[in-house]
Amino acid sequence: MNDIDKIVYQAKLAEQAERYDEMMNFMKEVATQQPNLTLEQRNLLSVAYKNIVGARRASFRIVSSILTKEREKDGESGHVPKITAYKAKIEGELENICHDILKLLEDKLIKEADAQGSAEARVFYNKMKGDYYRYLAEFQDDQGVKNNSQESYKAAKSVADSELAPTHPIRLGLALNYSVFMFEVMGAESQACELAKNAFDEAIAELDSLDEESYKDSTLIMQLLRDNLTLWTSDDKNE
């Protein structure tokens, strides 16, 4: 077992223990030393950051909701400044995490994937870049952040459309996240629906060619695409 394998094992151990901050540090060390990651290593890196940022995004939503309710009360209770400061603290943590992984993606991983010519890795990392700029855009009213997210998703989609099968879970996951970005961040409802519908229809047309290994992942993402389409189009009908 070489040094990289030992660090990857530690990351897996940290994942089992649900110690995601340590898992993140281990996988960041792997990516820094050897940016040409295997599929397993890419997924471990993604899981670590997703759990860390996901917990804080959930906290942000809860505290934002509490802040809104406090502001709606007749005569502020005096808690608003404390809640506002706490919300700002969570935003700072989110910003640090997002910039941390974005730097790793831009300085190391995307460059290495481009050099290696791996379609899967190029789509995976550009999608990931789009995701973390999207997370920043959820609380930063910054057009530059939105543009960076959109350009990253576009770059990933360009490679995915030409080099990955419509049923490939990475291509489907990209369509899912890109369409959510268009709907929730950009407010481009029709474009979001078009993205999701095209991805779903193209995958359905080639469902018979899906291998057993990818079947579960791909069909799960297809279900999420369909759920979003149902929700988004029912909103239009209700209006």
Characterise the protein shown here:
It is a single chain. The protein has 9 helices and no strands. 84% of the residues lie in helices and 0% in strands.
Quick recap of the structure?
The protein has nine helices and no strands. With 239 residues, the chain is mostly helical.
- Structural class category: mainly alpha
H/E element sequence: HHHHHHHHH
Beta content: under 5%
Oligomeric category: single chain
Question: How much helix is in the residues?
Answer: over 70%
Number of helices: 9
Mean pLDDT: 93
User: Would you identify the regions where 5 or more consecutive residues have pLDDT less than 50?
Assistant: none
Shape: globular
Number of strands: 0
**What is the distance, rounded to the nearest whole angstrom, between the alpha carbons of the first and last residues?**
60 Å
Largest sheet: none
What does the radius of gyration come to?
19 Å
